[in-house]
Amino acid sequence: MKPLADGTIPPEGSAYWVALKQFEDAARELNLDEGMVDFLRHPKRELTVNFPVTMNDGSMRMFTGYRVHHNTVRGPTKGGIRFHPNVDLNEMRALAMWMTWKCAVVNIPYGGAKGGVIVDPDKLNESELRRLTRRFATEISILMSPEGDIPAPDVNTNAQTMAWIMDTYSMHKGYSIPAVVTGKPVQIGGSLGRVDATGRGVMVTTREALKMRGKSYRDVTVAVQGFGNVGSHAAALMAEEGATIVAISDASGGVANPKGLDVKALKDYVAKNKFVKGFPEADAITNEELLAYKCDVLTPCALENQLTAKNADKVQARLVAEGANGPTTPEADRILEDKGVMLIPDILCNAGGVTASYFEWVQDLQSFFWTEAEINARLDRIMAEAYHAVMAEAEKRKVGRRVAAQVLAIGRVAEAATLRGIYP
Ligand code: NAD
Predict the structure, then answer these.
(1) pLDDT tens for residues 107-133?
(2) Half-sphere exposure of 341 (CA within 13 A, CB side)
(3) Which of 59, 173, 327, 382 has the fewest C-beta atoms lying within 10 Å of its C-beta?
(4) Residue (of 30, 18, 6, 15) closest to 405 by Cα position
(5) Which residue, by CA, sits nearest to atom 21 of ligand 1?
(6) Which of 155, 227, 250 to mutate to test the pocket of ligand 1 (most atoms within 8 A of CB)?
(7) What pLDDT is recorded for position 303?
(8) Could you give the count of Cα atoms lying within 13 Å of 100 in the half-sphere of its Cβ?
(9) pTM passes above 0.85
(10) In this structure, are residues 358 and 370 in contact, taking their beta carbons and an 8 Å threshold?
């Protein structure tokens, strides 16, 4: 791999290395000129902040956080903020780059960003977490604004975190600025339909894929890995459409029933018991067994690197819909393609969340709020159009769907960069 402008190459196998490899494949397919390729493989700007937080015992502790903007040629940057012990600058760079492509694939006017703090939030109590969030928001406020960079929730951050960030930013300005973050509570400028939007996007893109095979949800069985925000809403919405959900898993393991699981009852069970383990009227299975479970559609909605060279040949599903970011390794991609398994790649499949975030931002800027039905209808249209645009690209170029999604996205970003020209 060609070194970056600072002379470094990301560690082989790291998220940034994978992101750059995927980018190189797509850039080659697009025949982009070398200068443009080099421009698009670099993040635009990176901020590292080291900041103190007063802990509840009166001591002071230092934390490190990041905000990375990958590209701004199509609009302000958009991307989540995660709190996790494994956060590092290379991971932020990869996720920011994927956000640029994700926004472009659904054709919304944003570039990609990502931010995070190296912290295990389970080890802090609420008031410590609130002070950490407010201080981090202040530190990155030199990059953040409704016009320039709009954060959202990600791993271990939620609507409450966004409320604290929005309030911090607003306190500094002297008036309320809800459009500075998305994924806020509805009571303070959040959008209806945001909570289930990623799962809804998974449901819509899968529905379109089934349609292309002359099928509907009534004809298929589905296995869902992960029962958090994405997995639980995807499962519930697919079940509403008539699918039989035969297996669901989470960090505790999985539950399966070939006749179908009652998703609503499982949600209630998880609300009380935290995990799916022990759910009655189902067999206990492992996560490995879930991925290989007999079903028509498999939707990994948990973590990255779940379908690998070790297990991809055991997948029985004919369609894999990637609700999670990066659930399939490049080797597993090849195995699934050889088996003829149809793929809905992550930057397309899980783009419903950022699309609803875009709706939230537009509503905040106009102080004019839409009904949930309007939001769901617009989301459905954008996701279905993006699905068919990616399939048309794959067909036209005779490439896999992951490459096709990247080609469509990167082509749009390169076109915008060319139209604007390189400054000065
Ligand atoms: P979440 O924390 O709400 O849920 C994650 C789920 O995965 C939980 O049920 C957890 O128990 C389960 N899990 C954890 N480890 C597991 C394992 N080893 N095996 C099986 N299940 C396991 O997270 P989320 O918001 O649903 O995000 C899931 C994935 O979707 C992530 O890759 C995230 O980046 C991606 N994503 C989320 C959104 C969004 O709007 N929330 C948008 C786009 C992409």
Answers:
(1) 999 999 999 999 999 999 999 999 999
(2) 29
(3) 59
(4) 30
(5) 250
(6) 250
(7) 86
(8) 30
(9) yes
(10) no
The three-point CA angle 89-165-76 to 5° equals 65
Predicted confidence band of residue 281 (pLDDT cuts 50, 70, 90): confident
Pocket of ligand 1 (CB under 6 A): 198, 225-231, 249-251, 287, 301-303, 323-325, 350, 353
- CA 418 to ligand 1 centroid distance, Å: 36
C-alpha dihedral, 314 to 318 to 321 to 322, nearest 10°: 30
Find the 29 Cα to ligand 1 centroid distance in Å.
31
Give one DSSP letter per residue of 29-67, joined into a string: HHT--HHHHHHHHS-SEEEEEEEEEE-TTS-EEEEEEEE
Tokens encoding 419: 């139209």
Which residue has a Cα nearest atom 1 of ligand 1?
A: 228
User: Which ligand 1 atom is nearest residue 197's CA?
Assistant: 40
Active-site residue set: 114
At 118 the pLDDT is 98
DSSP character string of 267-321: HHHHHHHSSSTT-SSSEEE-HHHHHT-S-SEEEE-S-SS-B-TTTGGG---SEEE
